[in-house]
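Help! Submission page says 'invalid entity' but I think these are all valid:
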Amino acid sequence: MKPYVIGVDLGGTNTVFGIVDSAGNIIEEGSIKTGSFNTATEFVAAGLDCIHHIVKKVGGIEQIQGMGIGAPNANYYTGTIEFAPNIAWAHDGVVQLAGMFAGELGIPVRMTNDANAAAMGEKLYGIAKGMKNFIMITLGTGLGAGIIINGKLVYGHDGFAGELGHVNMDRSENARPCGCGRKGCLETYCSATGVARTAREFLQKTNRPSILRQKPLDEIESLDVFLAAQKGDEIAKEVFQFTGTMLGWACADFTAFSSPEAFIFFGGLCKSGDLIMKPIEETYNRVVMPLFRNKAKFLISGLMNKNAAVLGASALGWE
Amino acid sequence: MKPYVIGVDLGGTNTVFGIVDSAGNIIEEGSIKTGSFNTATEFVAAGLDCIHHIVKKVGGIEQIQGMGIGAPNANYYTGTIEFAPNIAWAHDGVVQLAGMFAGELGIPVRMTNDANAAAMGEKLYGIAKGMKNFIMITLGTGLGAGIIINGKLVYGHDGFAGELGHVNMDRSENARPCGCGRKGCLETYCSATGVARTAREFLQKTNRPSILRQKPLDEIESLDVFLAAQKGDEIAKEVFQFTGTMLGWACADFTAFSSPEAFIFFGGLCKSGDLIMKPIEETYNRVVMPLFRNKAKFLISGLMNKNAAVLGASALGWE
């Protein structure tokens, strides 16, 4: 085994490249602007420049075991990014990104979606060390998930398993519309966007006073709701209660499926701590099938303050 | 490898023992009445008599590789039956059944629940040969499931994964009560019992004519609904439409989790064929995340007319 891997966090704005050792330390780091390229070829060329620059510092490509990329709409089986709405050079087609990098670097390159990468990072370097069955839930703009069963990521038949943000929570006509084109998806309620949306709904439904009314309704963000709840604002607290309760119901269904040892939460919304975690766990243990009650752990990621996305992606470099 | 395994289908009424060869043929068979024993020890003693009798016919225990038992409330990890409501000698405790048989027979004995056994049988001898990711759904009195991911059964952290009959389909107060002590579980709608319940509800809601009205309301069974639907009875057809639609929604959520190659249905309700399969598949492809549309297959078990429970359990004997 060579001493390092490269982890790549490919986001809509920035792409961060990191050289990671086997203990999970990021030794070197560099980045480029994802959005400043028109074609995948240009993006890869700039990426290679950045990689060569940091690889030189650790003794050259001979020191690198492999590379892992975490990216939206990435398919592990094919190494492709497919129709990624927020990436100009990948939004209307299929880009063979892993193959393009592997061909130039001469090392194995694997790719998976960002939530799967986070789950792998948690398993290797975080709070899930030693766990064989857990579900990672990332609460960001949307809700992503990485599912580990029998010690392995679940990719499913087509490489796209783990879309837990898109299980249905409301089959009624007035369910919330989702970016995926349907209605009532979990992530329309349980995500940063969902929290802001719930706050706006709650504020419109009543005339009760709230700190949140200091801002125009359509400018309220999840951070505002968190800050208001911290100050004891009733409506803001109810928003977190609603969000956590919905997640508790969803986790109860996920347990019926794979009965994990733990649910591990990651992302901005987790910074609200007990405000969201308590209603998740309380609801879960109230509504889950009695057989499963009080078994699963509800944890916050151990990598929240590290560059978890790079670490997670780098985990694929060891495969 | 020895030439045979023993498969055991332990049901509430009968326990069937079969000697199975590597091609999935049941060579010898015997059975005892599960319910005629007061203790697990008595049950095991009678079971051993039956096993010895059929094993003798194939050349003795030296010809047997192992034994697999499919049983309600069985835990694969511990080889125990735990609090099985319909088995007198196992309803109020934990019975180390696999260990008791293994100790006496001197061969490895593994145990899993009946739906998991059916999934294993389907994978080895049925329509799922060669599939690495599929979900088996058994539609009997309740709804059971066996989930295969990366070629292996999903047992979860505690051995009880795959309780898909108990995902929630209705969080409202007037959701149907379930035998598990909660409300709104999938199996309260999608099972033989669920179909009969839906029929009674539909008949009570209107005065529309129906063949089903020839029977007292509380005596209607799923078979009556099937026969009525076959004769073109509108209400009976609507019952199947309702049941299949609910299952289609549920399968869409299961796909968000593990994106299987196929859903395979087993059990009495499947004999209604298109009446139930059509609304499942139509609903699924209408409501599933667009990414997954028209990918999964919807199949009826290839073992419906064989002794699938014995075959499925026997699959564990090869492990």
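Support: the input was valid. A stray whitespace character was the problem, and the output above is from the cleaned input. The radius of gyration of chain B is 20 Å.
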